[in-house]
Design goal:
Blueprint (H helix, E strand, L loop, with lengths): L3 E5 L6 H11 L10 E5 L2 H17 L4 E5 L16 H6 L2 E6 L2 H5 L5 H14 L2 E6 L3 H5 L3 H12 L11 E4 L13 H18 L9 E4 L7 H5 L6 E4 L6 H12 L2
Parallel strand pairs: 1-2, 1-8, 2-3, 3-4, 4-5, 5-6, 6-7, 7-8
The protein binds 1,3-dihydroxyacetonephosphate.
């Protein structure tokens, strides 16, 4: 299984800033093919990023893929403000982040909607990264594993046989954007649980499923986190906004 290091830029960077970032970032990861890299800019920058990546790939070898931060589960129609999988496919978007805690908590997305999106993503050939994770209150009440189990079972209902085409990101809500990451031990405990759960529900058909950790990952804590046996990569927010910091995290993963 290849590690995946993914950047979730959230609502950051204009088209100009995206192109400036790629100009600085792409040379650093040229010929770096042993780890999968994904960048998810905002929707407005996807097209320009796609063109820039395409041009780079004509000049050299890059293992950098584009991701979307969300999508709707219908091909087209009267869904004001939504983006469809067909629109993402056209831009060579290969990943989609689904069920991010900001979608769940700020925009009220529930497991059944997230599940519909996961199913459509798999059907359209866009690899979903299903995000799960507990709030601080849930952790303090000892509910971490039961919350994660519910989010995974509901989120993956109907796609269990396609598990090898899906990645999971464990992102404890209390660690997102706070500067307080889960300790390697805390991450490993939940990742081991997720691994056994998806092994059970996919009947062993999960050999390409990465379990990413997300939540205040940076160039200083990445090495200790990736050393854990069930941490298969990262979903990085804040630290991915700077191309040098994101590259440093990638190099920490390479060294394990
Ligand atoms: O939400 C995240 C990635 O999806 C994590 O964000 P931070 O790295 O800023 O904590």
């Amino acid at each position: 299984m290849r590690y995946l290091v993914a950047a979730n830029w959230k609502m950051n960077k204009t088209v100009g800033e995206t192109l400036e970032y790629l100009d600085r970032f792409l040379p650093s990861v040229k010929d770096l093919l042993s780890v999968d890299i994904m960048i998810a800019p905002p929707f407005t920058a996807l097209s320009s990023a796609s063109i820039r990546l395409d041009a780079a790939k004509k000049e050299g070898e890059y293992n950098v893929k584009l991701g979307a931060q969300n999508m709707y589960y219908v091909e087209k129609g009267a869904f004001t403000g939504e983006i469809s999988p067909v629109m993402l496919n056209e831009l060579d978007v290969e990943y989609v982040i689904l069920g991010h805690s900001e979608r769940r908590h700020i925009f009220g997305e529930k497991d059944d909607l997230i599940n519909k999106k996961v199913i459509t993503a798999v059907e359209t050939g866009i690899r979903p990264i299903l995000c799960v994770g507990e709030t601080l209150e849930e952790r303090e009440q000892g509910k971490t594993l039961s919350v994660v189990e519910r989010q995974i079972r509901n989120g993956l209902a109907g796609v269990e046989k396609d598990m090898a085409f899906i990645d999971i990101a464990y992102e404890p809500v209390w660690a997102i954007g706070t500067g307080v990451n889960a300790t390697p031990e805390q991450a490993q405990e939940v990742h081991r649980f997720i691994r056994s759960l998806i092994n059970e529900i996919s009947k062993g058909n999960d050999s390409n499923t990465r379990i990413l950790y997300g939540g205040s990952v940076n160039e200083k804590n990445a090495r200790d986190l990736i050393k854990e046996p069930n941490v298969d990569g990262f979903l990085v927010g804040t630290a991915s906004l700077d191309p040098e910091r994101f590259y440093k995290i990638i190099t920490e993963v390479l060294e394990v």
